[in-house]
Structure formats: structure tokens, C-alpha cells
Amino acid sequence: MTTSGNGTGGPGEAPTTTFPPLTRRTEDTLGALVADASRDLSSLVRQEIALAKAELRDDVKNAATGGAMFGAAAFLVLLSVVMLSITLALFLAWLGVEPWVAFLIVTVFFLLVAVGLALLGKWKVSKVGKPERTIRTSKDTATFLKSRGR
Question: How far is residue 100's CA from residue 93's CA, in Å, rounded to a whole number?
Fold first, then answer.
């Protein structure tokens, strides 16, 4: 950058400044600038989508592994319930109850627990209703958008 006067060299004269040329061509048209911006935006969107896919791939893999672990745990709990049933029946038989009656008692006990859980689940499901606030706000939004279109 250089400074110089207007050539008269007077003592109160303000210096003038010269800047280096711009690195970008100044004659770029508006169309070229819009095309560049569109290309850059398109590239940015593609890169963001690729990043989202990579993150989701890892999340899906972790979710599948976690789901498999929960499935294995549920299977082991089921096996434990079977073993507990046999243990309870054998304990009742050890106390003097006929073995077939002991197994029948344990079976009826688990059936009663299952019926109780089914009734509790039915009661909870019957409390489920429509998403009234969501329906109301969706209708309000639709009404607003229709009125804006006129």
C-alpha cells in the first residue's frame, strides 16, 4: 500500500491511499456469483447428508447391538422363571405336597400373575386417548396457511 499527495506537495494536503488489486475478478456477473453460491450450497448439503448417514450408521449399529443384548437378557430371564417354577414345585413336594399338585399350584400361581398383568395392561391401554393438542394445533396451522394463500 502506498500513500501519496495530489502532486502539489502542500503542507495541509491529505494523503491518498492505493490498495492492491483484489484476488477475485471484479467483473464477475451476478449470474456467476449465484451459480457459485448454488454450487457451494449444493456441495455443503451433500457433505451434511454424508455426515448424517455416517452418524446414523453408527447409531443404528449401536441400537441393533443393544437390542440384541436386551433380547438375550429377556431370554435368560425367561429361563430363570422356568427354573424358579421348577424349584418352587420341588420345594412344595419336599414339604410333603404330592409332586403333581405342587407343579399345579405353581402353574396356577403364574397364570394368576399373568391374568393380573393382562388386566393391568388393558386398564393402562384404555387410558390412551387421541393427541388432542396436536390435532388442534395442526388444524390451526392448516387454517392459517389456507388464509395466507388467499
Answer: 8
Residues 4 and 2: their CA atoms lie apart, in Å, by 7
How many Cβ atoms from other residues are within 10 Å of residue 102's Cβ?
19
Q: Going residue by residue through the chain, which has 150 residues, state the pLDDT in tens, using 9 for 90 and above.
A: 545 445 555 555 555 556 555 555 555 788 788 888 888 888 888 888 888 888 888 889 989 999 999 999 999 999 999 999 999 999 999 999 999 999 999 999 999 999 999 999 999 998 888 888 888 888 888 888 778 766
Strand-pairing partners, residue 16, are: 4
Question: How far apart (Å, rounded) are the C-alpha atoms in residues 127 and 121?
Answer: 10
What are the Cα distances from residue 109, in Å, to 10, 84, 125? 112, 12, 24
